Structure formats: structure tokens, C-alpha cells
Amino acid sequence: MSTPRPELVDVATAAVERARRVGATACDAVMIEVESSSTAVRLGEVETVKLSRERRLGLRCFVGQASAVASTADLAPGALDAFASQVVEMARAVAPDPVAGLPDPALLARDFPELEIADPAGLELSPEERVERARRCEAAALGADPRLVNSEGADFALSAAHVAYASSLGFAGSYRSTSYALSVAPVAAQDGSMQRDYWYDASRSLARLADPESIGRKAAERVLRRLGARPVATQQVPVVFDPQTAATLLSHLASAACGGALYRRASFLLDRIGQPIASALVTIVDDGRMPRGLASRPFDAEGVATRRNVVVEGGVLKSYLLDTYAARKLDLQTTGSAARSVGDVPGATPTNFHLAKGASTPEQVIASVERGLYVTGLSGFGVNGVTGDYSRGASGLWIENGELTHPVEEVTIAGNLLDMFRGIEMVADDLVFRSSIASPTVKIGRMTVAGR
Amino acid sequence: MKQQDDLAPQTFFFERFGLDAGTLEATLGSALARRADFADLYFEFRTVQSVALEEGLVKKTTHSVSQGVGVRVLAGEKTGYAYSDEVTAERLQLAAQHARQIAAADAATAAVDLRRGPGEPPHELYPVAPDALARPLPERIALLERVDRAARAYDPRITNVIASLSLEEKLVLVANSAGELVSDRQPLLRLQVSCIAEHGGRRHSGSFGGGGRVPFEFLVGDDERALAFAREAARQAVVAFDAVDTPAGQMTVVLGPGWPGVLLHEAVGHGLEGDFNRKGTSAFSKLMGERVASELCTVVDDGTLPSRRGSLNVDDEGTPTRRNVLIEKGRLVGYLQDRLNARLMGVAPTGNGRRESFMHYPMPRMTNTFMLAGEDDPEDIIRSVDRGLYAVSFGGGQVDITNGKFVFSASEAYLIEGGRIGAPVKDATLIGNGPDVLTRISRVGADLKLDEGVGVCGKDGQSVPVGVGLPTIRIDGLTVGGTQT
Q: Residue A195's beta-bridge partner residues?
């Protein structure tokens, strides 16, 4: 263990060279190293401390148009040779796929802009300071009101990742990133029933992470307002989604806009480029190079330069999110959206995918509703990406005459995603990037709420 | 990339990493060098081989090998956990030092003697030799090609078939400060088939699959089981063309047998996990001994069913699995426990301490969760409903442990009108309250069925394979999340 570790990009490059030597006609390699820690505090005491470190190499080899992928954590030089040979052997056993291959070399990243995604300073926080942040966050939550009687704890997590990619096109590059996240989940009780909710913040830099007390207070506010929740009668009403739940609508749209769903013909956005798929108030951007973005990176999982893709503009579908394979299947060009887990083939995913903010305040959006539901929580998997049919469990607050009244739970909301996006009547101005997919508050004109 | 041969898992780990019982004892001793209650080491070596076919072509073939060790120290309610994917005596020591940080300093080092405890699992639930699981890549591809053809032959509207086969073999070795040293070899096979159907400009999808801790033969035996999965996926895709809008609101719901058992998993299973109940954050906290279901309901979690996806010889803390009754004739009688929560609640572990991999610490988790059969004829149950919903296939579900509200999403359901099954309806989510929903069960069929073996349960970011099962049941009042008011 005393020998210095080779640079990640050198490991990836070495794997590519070995694969070429044992018969790969083309190949690429991903090497990752992630160190992370999470510190959880519950009711003021340390509950868990977890430290982890992972190093893994993924190798994809082509023999002509046939390919195979493998991953390993065994990085000894001797093991690497056998590993490369094995992947090439696997590729030889597979029939060729005429579309398979590495990206067009002209699209590979050449510039590596400073994306401000690594802040190693925060990694120096001592174990005691990590505990203290979680403790302060939970204390602020539980101290807010005597009805806050229990807790699922507060968690302070940090991680540092180093990603390298090399391919037989001659590309070799790497980047580092960090992330910091603080969350808390207090439990409130009243009249014999309990509610739990949470709040969090996440950032590339520790200095930009919200302070522990503000996260705690927000969590307390969110859980307290759920006490006494009840179902409402089944009816069709306007529905307002808070930024967290609105972001889940965007994630469903993003999945349908990604290459894999499209070339499999399993997307409700198939064949809709140039068509209105949302109200004119909707502009959606996926920006892989947003400064400090939680999903920003200089190049994608095929070495292609990342970029800012306008997906929807004024309600019209402008672009899909594509990796090389899906792009070739669809007769289009990759949008630099490839991602991959180390041992898998690349596939398109959204990066910093967001709905551009509108002009109204969230208060104005709520005030515009005579009777309707303000959704703050969603649950379940009732989203059909092929048809867009949507039906999920919901909780939140009932709106009466433009004001929030009693909390609501044990209801569902249902519709179709295309109708829902077309039915967006207001977009608020409260866009904040707490996760890579983000949205301001939105109002949809009409959905079915099912309850009692 | 040498395949592990038929070595006993313990010998395999010792040889591969140059370890011996002395190294493990020294590591455990170091982990306990502060004031701790318990320490354990979890070694894992896992290979996963997968092939996916789309449009009749192999879209990917992968092989992954992962290996590592997790070191855990427990002190009071505290858990310290560290892992390494390099398994050397030096790394083990370092992980032990990290993990013990949660414990107060100043204790004498406890000596650990691994020869004291029992060594072998008490049962052999999945005796699958490595070469009975893995098959050469061409043979696996050939099976998927037949799956593809079978799905397309079912109906001309099937335009694409996505079939994937995953073969996993996991070797585990658990050593703990109680002197136990236990190992296991855990095979896992899964075939998943998704079909896209197109007709008149509309598209629908259907998916189905199966597997378990079974040999490859499972797929080709029993009259070509894999092809039956393919035809079922195709059937689900085309039946959706006839689907009408789903009614919205509360109504009588009949659940078909098998996979709809996901109801139990969400509505009661998670709420009965020991951690939530020790902390008092579950809607089921303080309900032990109380009536939480109709008298017709007995619900068990059984990790000892031979060959099932959710079964284990020993859990991921080395505790033998067993059959745990959770609800007996409507009364809550049992929680699911791992070591930590069992010790803190003053009860015995139930063999439910599970983890996703060496990168994760164990938590109380389900294995195979199902309701025992009742006496009713399933057709009688449907005939007993004047207006309602008959749901036979489900996607995923989710539960809020604290307020008990759960959802699960029907992917194939039909209207019931005048005691007869009517038109299929669009996908819809069903929502209810965990401690309340089973009290509304008025009929339980004699047709208990377990699922086909594709279930995955997620909790705190950790996924583990599980099973569910259910006879046909009638629920008098569940909210259906349709669009028709």
C-alpha cells in the first residue's frame, strides 16, 4: 500500500491500450473514485457514522459492431490484462449491432471550462464539526414547537468524486467534484396521530450550503402544517405544485425526452419535436455546464462536450436528450447527455434540468385559486411513460378562496402528463437548485383529486 | 477473472484475500477497542452477468465483479460503519479504526474467538451449483431470442420486445464479536420481459418476468417458463388498448392472487420493521397485541421458502432466517428485527437484518411477505361485488411509515359490474391507511399465490430482493386514483 496510486486517467488510458492490444477494434473506459461520509444524529446523539471509499473501472469493448461491457474493482496490473481479454471475448460472442459505436470524434470535448463543482476545502471538516452541523439542524427543527416530539434524525453527508474517461478515439480526461448535503426529518404528534416531513439543502460547496438552523426551521414548518390532515371529497379542481413536487413532474418529462425511451418507442413525446407539448408559459432547459450545478460536468460519459440544451421553448418541444446510440437510431446528433454507471452501457439522462421561472410570486399563484389543492408531497409510481397517464398519492393543503386552509392526505391526483403540461396556467418565480432537476411553483388548471 | 469454483465460501475468502481466522479475530478485537457492544465483519464477493436483447439484437452484455468488506461497530444506539473494496489486513484495521469512532474511548480490548460459534447455516434453501446457474453467453442469448419470438408471435401489434436476463452469484462471510463465523452462497436469477405494442397511432407497454434462487433450468423447464413470461408481457401490453378511464374515489376493490401482495409489503410490512418501532416513528408503534386486521387475515414474513427470491439461509448479519408471523387472525403479534433493534427492544433477532452490499450497514427488512389462504372461492368473491374494481397486476408501491398512508399502482385492473368482470381500466394508484386497510378485508380466497420472483424493495437508498404473496381478497373501501368523477 505504500506505492503511490496512479492517476485515474492513466488507469483508464491503460485499460484502453490493453483492450486494443487484445483485439478490441474500439473501446472506452470509465474510472471512478468516490470517497464519502455521512453523519447522522438523532435526538441529539450520534446515531450512525459511515465512511466509504469506492474505486471502480468499467470497460466497453467493440469488436467491429459487436460490444460488451464489464466492471471490476480489481485494479492490479496483471488482473487488468485478463479483464480486458474477457471483455473482448464477450464481445466476440455477440451479434453485431449496425448502430453501435463510439461518438463522432468532432463532438468530443476540447475545452474544459471551470464549472465550480469542486470545493475540497469543505472536506477538511472534522468529525466533531460534522456531528455539530447535524445536531444544530435537528435541534432547530425540534425546538420550533412542543408538538415536535420525535425525529428520524438529521444527516450531514459529504462526498468527493473523481471521474476519468478515456477512449480509443484518443480522448482522455478527468474531473473532480464535491457535494455537501444536510437534511432533517422531524416527527410531530397531535391528538394521537403522527406526521413526518423533511427539509434539506445540497450544494457543490460547503460555504453555499444553507445554514443548519434554517433547514431545521423549514422542516419544522413543513411537518407542523401536516397535523390534522384529512382526505377531501372526489372532485376536479386546479392543482398547485410546490417547487419540490413540480420538479417530479419535470423528471417524468425528462425521462420521456431521453434517448432510451424514444428509440424504444416507449415515450409519450415520440414524434413530437416542433409541436406544442406544454402551455406557452413553459420553457425547459437542460444545462450540463451550469456553474456549480449538481449535475454539471465538462464532458459526458462518451467524452462528448456537455452543453445547454433547450428542451421546451414557449411550450414547443425543441430537443430530445440523446447519447450517441439513441441519436443514431433516431437519425439525430448526440446532445452530450450520455451518462453511465461504471459497469453499464451509456444512456442519456438529464443534467441540470429545470423549468424557467415565471413572473408571479408563489403567493399570487395560490391566491388565484378559488378551490383547489396545494400539493407538497407525492408518493408511488403511478406514471406511465408510454402513454403519459399519471396517478399518484398526494398530500398538501386545501385552498379555499385563494387561501391555504386545512391539510390534506390520503388522496390521489390523476390526469395525463401532456394534458397537465398543456394545462399549466401559472409559473412562479421561486426557482432554486436544491437538486439537479428543479422547478418553481406551478399551477395546473384542472386535475382529478380522488378522496372520500 | 477466474470463476469461483466449488470451494466452501469461507475457504474461498481466506484463499482469495490471504486471510485467516486470526486476522478476523484481530480486526474484531480492534473494532471493540473502545466501549462498544458488538462488532461484525461482512465480506462479499459478487459477480453479475447480464444480457439484454432489444429489437432482436443484443443491446448489452455485461459482467461485473465486486468485492469488499464492511466493518460495523455498535455501541448503545450508535452505529459506526466503514468499508473497503480492497481486502487486506491493513485495510481491515483501518476500517475498524474508523468504525469504532462512535464509541467512547477507554475500554479494555475484548478477545474474540471465532471457533466458539456455529459455522454453517441451518438450512440449504437454494442448492444451485455455480455451473447450474451460469450458462455460456450464446446459450443465454439464444433463450432471449426465443423469448423475443414468443412475445411477437402472441400478437401482431407487438412492435418491440426488450428482454433481459441477469445471473448473480454472491458469496458472503460474516464474522462477529459473539464468535460466530457464517458463510453462504446466494444465487439469484431474474428474467424480465417488456413489450411495446402499437396500433392505430397508440402505444402501450406491458412487462412481466420471474426468477429466484434457482438454476438456469428454471427458465427452460416446466414447459418453457421463459416463453410463458414473454406471452404474459405481450398480453398485458395489448389488453391496454381496450382500457377505459378509471373511476375516481372510494370503492370496493378485489385484489387478485400473487403480486398484488405488494399491498401487504407497503400497508403493513414496512410499518412492522423494528427500527421504526423502536424509535416510535411508525404508525404501528404501540399497536403490538392490538387488532390491526380482520380476523380472516394472517400475515407472515418467511425467509425460509426454498428457492424464493426473498429467501436466505442466513440474513446479512449471519442470523438464520425463519418464518415470522406478523399478524395472526387480525392481531399484531410480531415485528421484523435485526440485531441492533432486537437488542435495544429486548427481543431476539428474527433473521431480517439485510443489506444491499458490503457498502451498506444492515437494517430490518422483509423477505417473502404474504397472507395465508382463506376459504372462499375466488369467483364467489368477484360475484359478491356489485360495483368495484378488480386489480390483478401492480407496479410499485410506497408508504409513509409515520402516518401510515400507503399507495400502490395497478398496472392491470378491470371494472366489476353486477358481480362480473367488465372492461379493463387505465393504470391507477390506490391509496389507503396501513393500520386500517386490513380491517376492511371481508373475503379471503383459498388461492394463495406467491409472485413470480422479480420484486425489489428500497429503503434508505438500499435495494434488496424480496417476495410477496396473496390470495384473492375483497377490501370494502379503498380510494382509487382514477380520472372519472
A: A188
Across the interface, which of B101, B248, B409 has its CB nearest the CB of A448? B248
Q: Give CA A292 to chain center in angstroms.
A: 14
Radius of gyration of chain A (CA): 24
Residue B184 cell numbers, joined = 453462504
SS3 for B340?
helix
Q: Does A404 touch chain B (CB under 8 A)?
A: no
Tell me the one-letter amino acid at A28: D
Which run of H or E residues covers position B69? Answer: strand B57-75
Q: Which residues pair with A157 in a beta bridge?
A: A38, A181
Taking CB atoms and an 8 Å cut-off, how many pairs form between chains A and B?
258
SS3 B14: helix
| Grid coordinates belonging to B414 | 378491470
Report d(CA B1, CA B13) in Å as an integer: 15
Give the DSSP letter string of B244-300.
Answer: BPPBEEEEEEEEPSSGGGHHHIIIIIGGGBHHHHHHT-STTTT-TTSB-S-TT--EE
* Interface with chain B: mutation pick from A3, A448, A449, A452, highest number of B CBs within 10 Å: A448
The pTM score is: 0.95
pLDDT tens sequence across B171-216: 999 999 999 999 999 999 999 999 999 999 999 999 999 999 999 9
* Mean pLDDT of all residues belonging to chain B: 94
Q: Please answer whether residues B474 and B384 qualify as being in contact, where contact means their C-beta atoms are separated by less than 8 angstroms.
A: yes
Strands A437-438 and A424-427: unpaired
* Distance (Å, whole) CA A308 – CA A327: 17
CB distance from A194 to chain B under 8 Å?
Answer: yes
Residues A90, A94: Cα–Cα separation, whole Å = 7
Q: Quick: pLDDT tens for B28-75.
A: 999 998 889 999 999 999 999 999 999 999 999 999 999 999 999 999
DSSP letter (8 states) at residue B107: -
Instruction: Tell me which amino acid residue A154 is.
Output: A
> SS3 sequence, B175-233?
EECCCCEEEEEEEEEEEEEEEEEEECCEEEEEEEEEEECCCCHHHHHHHHHHHHHHHHH
Cβ-contact B206, B58 below 8 angstroms: no
Name chain B contacts of A78, Cβ cutoff 8 Å: none
Q: ipTM of the predicted structure? A: 0.93
What mean pLDDT is predicted for residues B20-27?
93
Share of chain A above pLDDT 70, in %: 99
> Are B141 and A195 an interchain contact pair (Cβ–Cβ within 8 Å)?
no
Are B304 and B321 within 8 A, CB to CB?
yes
CB contact under 8 A, B58 and A196: no
pLDDT tier at B5, thresholds 50, 70, 90: very low
| CA–CA distance, B232 with B333 (Å, rounded to integer) | 38
To which H or E segment does residue B146 belong? helix B137-154
Amino acid at A106: A
Closest to B102 in 3D by CA, of B49, B195, B196, B37: B37
